[in-house]
Amino acid sequence: MFKKRTLIGLVLILALVLVLALAACGGDDDDEDKTPTPEAAAEEEAAAEEEAVTEEAAAEEEAEAEEEVAAEEEAAEEEAEVAEGEAEEEVAAEEGLTFGVVLVGPKDDHGWSQAHYDAGLYVEENLPGSKMIALESMNSADRPETTLEQVAEDMVSQGAKVIITTSADFEVDTAVVAALYPDVTFIHISGDDVYWGIAPANVGNIMGQMEYGKMIAGCAAALKTETGSIGYVGPLIDPETTRLVNSVYLGARYCYETYREMDPAELKFTVTWIGFWFNIPGVTLDPTEVSNAMLDDGADVLISGIDTTEAIVVASQRAAEGEAVWAIPYDYKGACEEAQDICLGVPYFNWGPAYLGALQAIQDGTWKPAWDWNPPDWDDINNPETTAVGYIYGDGLTDENKTTLDEFIAALAAGAKGEEGGLNLFVGPLNFQDGSVFLEDGQVATPAEIWFMANNVEGAEDPETVNPPQLLEGVEGASE
Amino acid sequence: MTTPANTTQRPASQSAPPGGLSRSMIWRWVLDMLPAMLTPFLGILAALVIIVLILEWQGADPQVAWDYLYEGTLEDNIRRADLVAYWMPLAVTSLGLVLTYTAGLWNIGVEGQLIMGAIGATWAVRLFAESDSPPLGLDLGRDGVLVMCFVFAALTAAFWALIAAVLKTRGGVNEIFGGVALNFIAQTFNMYLVSNGGPWQPTGSRATETARFPENARLPTFQDYRRLSPTTIYVTVGVFVVVVLIMYVSKWGLQLRAMGKNQHSAFLLGVRTERNVVLSMALCGAMAGLGGAYRVLAPDVSKLTAAPSGGIGFLAILVVLLASMSAVLIPFVSFVFAVLSKGGQRIESGFQWDYDIVLDRSLVRVLQSTVVLMVVLAFGARNRFFPPRSAQPPVDDDTNGDTNDG
Fold first, then answer.
1. Global confidence as pTM
2. For A269-281, what is each residue's pLDDT tens digit?
3. Residue B8, C-beta contacts closer than 8 angstroms, at least 6 positions apart
4. Counting CB atoms within 10 angstroms of each CB, which of A237, B17, B37, B380 has the fewest?
5. Choosing among B322, B353, B398, B402, which should be mutated to test the A contact, i.e. which has the most A CBs within 10 A?
6. Mutation target among A1, A121, A130, A277 for the B interface, most CBs of B within 10 A
7. What is the ipTM metric for this complex?
C-alpha cells in the first residue's frame, strides 16, 4: 500500500531532519567550533574525533591568546576565567585534595543529606586546598539517567581522590565501583562491609553512635507526652533503623518510669515505616499522611527517623490549629528551625570531624580501612569540633525538662565511659517482638549486637547468617 | 479527512504510472512538507530561547552550559556509549507507544509496564541463573538466560498492559485511569520485592535492591565500553524495524490509524477495534517490558533497584507526542531527550563543581518540559496558520502530514 513514493518521502524526511538539525544548532549558537551535530556525531565517530582534535587545538590557542590579553588587561579577566576554568581546576586538584560526596537526597533537605553536605563544607574550611564536588539526589527514582559507577567516573575525571557515598543504598554499589578505581579511596557512610572484611581495601566505613541521640529524643518525648502515646515515622526496615527505633523506645521507657514515675507498660510507642529514606511520590508512603494519621490516633509527640522534615511540619500545622502536639526531627543540626515552639530538640549527626580526620589521613597517606562507629564527645555533645552526634534542645522543652535531660545525658555519659553508677540501656532482660530473648537478665549488649539488633551476631562469619533485626517487645509496628 | 477516504485512494496511487516521481513533484512535496517539518524546530528554537533566559536568570553562562551539555553526552566515546545505553530503553519504550497512541489509546500505564518488564527480567534471572539447581532443571548458559530475561520481561509487561486493555474493552475503564492505577500497583509491588526484607532483597542487605545478578546473567558489552551492551542495540533496531513495518507497510497499521481518527467509524467500517485495542496494548507492553529488561540488565546496574524506571515511561510519552506518533522520528526525538537528560545532569554538576553556581536540580525536567511545551505550541500555531494539507484538496502524501498533526 505504501509504495516507493512514501519510502522516498521517508528518506527525504530523514535528510531534512539532519539538515535542519545542523541549521538549527549552527544558527542558535555562536561558537561554531563547539557546535555538536547530535545525530551525525553519534554515528560518525571518526569525524567527531577529528573535530575534537581540531577543537582542542583551537581551545588551546584560544586559551593562550586570552592569557596574554589577561596579563595585559585586567578588565578581560572575567572572560579568560571562563576559558581557563578547566585549566585552573586541574592546578587546584594538584595542590589540594578534591573529594566527591554523593548524596541520596537534596543537599538542602534540612536532614540527613544536608548534614553531610555541611560536613563537606566544614572540611573545605579546615583542610587547606581541599575542594568538595557533591552530587545530590542520587537515587534511582530521581536520577534514572545515571548510576553510581558513572557518577564516580565523572568525579574521578574531575580530580577526586576520595569519594564519600552517604547512603545505605550505595552499600553494594560502593564495593563494586571501588574495585574499579583502586587508586581512589571510598568512604561508605553507615555501612559495615569493613566489619565483615568483605570490602575492597580502598573502602572505609563511618557512622555516628546515634543510639545516644535517639535515647535522648525518646526521653524528651516521654517527659512531654500527655496522652502517653508516641509516634515514630520510620524510613525502611534494616539493622540501622531498627536499632534507632529501639534506642528511642528504651530512652522513652526509662524516662517515663524514672522521671514521670508512670508505668512504662502503658506507654504506647508506634512505628510506621514509609518504605524509603524520604518521600518518593508513588513509591513510598507519604510521610505527611503518616504523621497526620499518627496524630489522629492519639499520639502527641512525633519522632522522625526519615531523612526529611515532614513530621515536624505536620506537627507544627496541627499545633497552629490549637492541638497540643510536639515533634522531634532528626539528622540535621538546624532542623528545629522549621518550628521552634513545638520542637523538643533534634538528635543530629556532626559528620565534619570524622570527614576531616579521614580526608586528612588520606592526604597524609596514613589512612587505613576501618569500621568507625564514632561516639559523641561526652564532655560536650554539641562541640562541633569533636563530637560525632549531638542533641540540641528545642523551645518546646521547659527549663525543668532541660534540667532532667541534662541529668539523663550525664548518666548516659557515665555509662558510656564505664563509670560507676552510669546508665546503659542496652542491658537485659530485653526481648524481641516475637518473644525471643535479645539479652538475658543482666547481660550487656556488645557493640555488634546493638549494631545488628540480633542475638547471634557474635561469632557469625558473614552477614547472611545473622538474624534479621527485630524491634523490641513493647514497640508497636512491623519488624519485617 | 477520514481514513476510509484514504484507503479508497490508495489503489489510485498504486496504479499511478511508474516513474511518476518527477523532480517537480518531489519539489512540490518538499514545499508541502516544509511547514510540518519546520514546526518542531521552531518549537525547539523557542525552547532554547527560554532555556537561555532561565540560565541567565540563574547566573549561569548559556555558552558554558552548552559546552557542558556537549561534554556530558557527546564529547568522548565513553560519554557517547553511556548516552546510547540510556537512549535504548527510552527509544524502545517510545516505539511501543507509537502503536497505542496511533490507535488513540493513551497508554499512561507504560511506566508500570516498564517496571513489570524489569521485574519479569529479574524473575527470569532468579529462575534460570541464580540457583545452583535451576527449578526447571535447565542449564541455559548465558545466552539462554538472557533470552529468557527478554522473553519474561516482554511477557510480564504485556500481561500488565493486557489488564489495562481488558479493563477498557470489557470493564469500561478508560485506559488512562486504569494505567495510572496499574502504574502505582507495579511500583508498589516492586518496592515490596526489594525493601523491608522483601522476598527479593538479600538477607542482611541494607540497600533497597536485589543482589547483583550472577555472571551468567550479564549482558555482553563492548570491549572498550563496559557499560554499553550491543545486545540492547540489536534488539532495539529489531523493534524499530517491526514497528516501521507495522505502521508503514501492514494493513494493521492502517487500521490503527483509522481507530486513532475515529474508533467508532473504524468499527463501522469493519475494523475489529476491540481486538486491536488488546493487541496494540499488549505489543506496546512487550516493548516497554524490553525497556525494563535493559534497565535491570544494564552492566552498571545488574539488579532490580527501588525504582527501575524512574520515569522513563513518562518520558517516552513525551517523546511520542513530540514525534507526533511517527515511528521514524522516534529514534531522533528520543535521542534528543536522552541528550537533555544526561547533558542536563552534567550542566548541573559542571556549574556546581567548577563555578560554585547551584542550579536547581529539577532543571533537567524543566528543560525537557519546555521543549515539549514549545513544540506542541508550535504545532498548534502551525495548524492555525498553515492548516495541514489534509484539510485541502486531496494530496496523496497527506498520511505523512497527518502523522505530524500532534
1. 0.81
2. 999 999 889 998 8
3. none
4. B17
5. B353
6. A1
7. 0.83
